[in-house]
Amino acid sequence: MSDSGAGDLSRTMAELARSVSGPRTLDERLRAVTAAVVELMPHETCAGILLISGGNKFETVAPTSELLRTLDHAQQQLGQGPCVAAALNNLVVRSEDLRSESRWPQFAAAAVDVGILSSMSFQLYTSEGKMGALNLFAFSPNAFGPNEEAAGEVLAAHAALALTAVRTEEQLRSAVASRDVIGQAKGMLMERFDIDAIRAFELLTRLSQETNTRLSVIAQRITERR
User: Fold this and answer.
1) CA–CA separation, 40 vs 152, rounded Å?
2) 157-169 residues labelled b (16+ CB within 10 A) or e (exposed)
3) What does residue 11 show for φ and ψ, rounded to 5 degrees?
4) How many angstroms separate the CA atoms of 33 and 6, rounded?
5) Which of 30, 50, 151, 225 is most deeply packed, by most CB within 10 A?
6) How confident is the model at residue 174, as a pLDDT?
């Protein structure tokens, strides 16, 4: 990467670091990433993040152009494309010229029809049936070289950290909420049947096992039905 390109990347990362130091939503953080990666590319480029869950549920996040939704929808319908390949299997997927792309011929044809001639995608994470990729599409062939790939990898790591942080926060909130509702259910059982906390928890556990239902769901039903 040239000194100028390295300087641009350093400044961009510094700005991103400052932008996430205060309270911001996940969408705001990811939009900062996609805007930054587009700014760093030498050719006209649009970018977005594709999240895949439940096998075939596609969600386009923080697109710099509505064209991303069109391209992601095409990949969902066709079951092929660079974003899918990156999200599911590969860390980096690059296509120099979609007009001669043989890996995803149907998607490549659809992309060329709307003016997209090259692409680059970065895997963000894969876990528990959920996958994500940062995706760049350019209107000219051979738009992405080693320098652009290096810059994209840095920003993809930033996006992955933001997504991981949010997933961790959601898991913690869910754990706290489950703990609270289980505590409420235990209290209701203790009062209703005049038993101690250990017996109440044993009763909840047995109900969970016998009905093959998560403990938190059993507790929630008890608190709702009293």
Assistant:
1) 9
2) ebbbebbeeeeee
3) -65, -40
4) 17
5) 50
6) 60
Single-letter residue type at 189: L
DSSP category for residue 121: E
- CA 41 to chain CA centroid, nearest Å: 22
Dump pLDDT digits (tens) for 138-189: 999 999 999 999 999 989 988 888 887 766 665 556 666 677 788 888 888 8
User: Does an H or E element contain 114, and which?
Assistant: none
| Domains present along the chain, CATH in parentheses | 1-169 (3.30.450.40), 173-222 (1.10.10.10)
Q: How much is the CA Rg of the chain, to the nearest whole Å?
A: 23
Six-digit token string for 73: 């929808």
Residue 226 confidence (pLDDT): 67
Per-residue pLDDT averaged across 37-65, rounded? Answer: 92
Q: Based on the number of CB atoms within 10 Å of its own CB, is 200 exposed (0-12), middle (13-18) or buried (19 or more)?
A: buried
Q: Print burial letters for 65-90: b (CB count within 10 Å at least 16), e (below 16).
A: eebbebbbebbbeeebbbbbbbbeee
Task: Give the amino acid at 197.
Answer: A
Using alpha carbons, list the distances in angstroms from residue 77 to 74, 82, 125: 5, 14, 22
Closest residue by Cα to residue 114 from 171, 157, 75:
75
Going by pLDDT thresholds of 50, 70 and 90, the confidence category of residue 38 is very high
Classify residue 208 by burial, with Cβ atoms within 10 Å: 0-12, 13-18, 19+: middle
Q: How many other β-carbons are positioned within 10 Å of the β-carbon of residue 116?
A: 23
Tokens of 226: 């009293």
